[in-house]
Amino acid sequence: MGYYPDWVGTTFPPAKVDFTRFDWIDFAFAIPTSDCNLTWDDPSVAPGLLASLVAAAHSKQKKVKLSIGGWTGSQHFSSSVNNTMARKKFVKNILAVYNQFHLDGIDIDWEYPGHQGEGNNEVNPNDSANFLAFLQLLRGALPPPAAITAATLNTPFFGANGKPLKDVSNFAKVLDWILLMNYDVWGSSANPGPNAPLYDGCHNSSQPDGNAVAGYEAWTAAGFPASKLVLGVPAYAYISQSTATRLRTRRSPPGTVRLVGDGDQIQFRNLIKQGALVRSPARDNFGPIFSGAGGFTRYWDKCSSTPFLQSPSASQVVTYDDVQSLGMKAAWTKEVGMLGVNIFDVHGDLDSWDLTDSVRRGLGLIR
């Protein structure tokens, strides 16, 4: 599985996606409006791009969901589900878009029910209860083959008391699966930490809930089946202006490269393009090994099972995932009986699809 965001359309059109490597693609994002409808970041581009993506996927017998919301698009979720009339209108408008674009499912990426996200979202103590009522209504409206999924934190939805719900089993009855957004645990910082920890291996993290294992344990303990859990993994990194030699809780030679990213984020493919990583002839069980270059040295953070790069001359630390760390995550999801892995996003991978293939190897889909 993988996300295809609307902002990559000009540089990475749907025809470039190798659908043989994916079962599902999530098109991101449609955005809820204040009147219980849907809009787009760029209405002049997104609808045509979605139509092209669906046509390309269906020609390869693969499926597409429309992801609604996202970090900057969750402002009006609360008012769109907070009463029966609003829910009916919202579902009606989602169904219209579902039919218009011949979709295979709907993904709800509400960040977050009952909890503030970006900073300007509507928040209601009853958000999670209203969200469940909305999902039940949506399930009844969409045709039976349609998948309904949700992107979530590593902790269950927040209840009226402001704490994670202890029982989410009713959500499991209407959702085909949820995606644990196990990324952005730490962003850019002078004291950097891992973007997407597998676990708190050293038992000293200041965010003990911010890792894949903790997310799995929290959701299954609250009654959500492991077989309906998907692990979200990043194909991007964070660049920190830092002289740290270890990740928060790291371990260096002179350099010539200084990385440039968008808002301190950088895609894995651009780590290669800008010269901080180079593909070596060596391989491990999950695929090719990428080594530090241009003054960056690659290290392994055993506490989170993720790599990081450090350049003393550029005073930069890069926290990211690669073939080895993603393969480990995928192998772990298979071991514990989770449904699979979803990459954010497909454009972050290389044209050779090394990251995606490492996930497929970890899942046992290819050798």
UniProtKB/TrEMBL annotation:
InterPro entries xref list: Chitinase_II/V-like_cat, GH, Glyco_hydro18_cat, Glyco_hydro_18_chit_AS, Glycosyl_Hydrlase_18
Residue span, GH18 domain: 1-366
Keyword Membrane appears in the UniProt entry: no
A single GO molecular function term of this UniProt record: endochitinase activity
SMART domains, per the entry: Glyco_18
Catalytic activity, reaction form: Random endo-hydrolysis of N-acetyl-beta-D-glucosaminide (1->4)-beta-linkages in chitin and chitodextrins
SUPFAM superfamilies, per database record: (Trans)glycosidases
Key words of the record: Carbohydrate metabolism, Chitin degradation, Glycosidase, Hydrolase, Polysaccharide degradation
GO biological process: chitin catabolic process; polysaccharide catabolic process
GO cellular component: extracellular region
Family (UniProt): Belongs to the glycosyl hydrolase 18 family.
Name the record gives this protein: Glycoside hydrolase
The species this protein was found in: Mycena rosella (Pink bonnet)
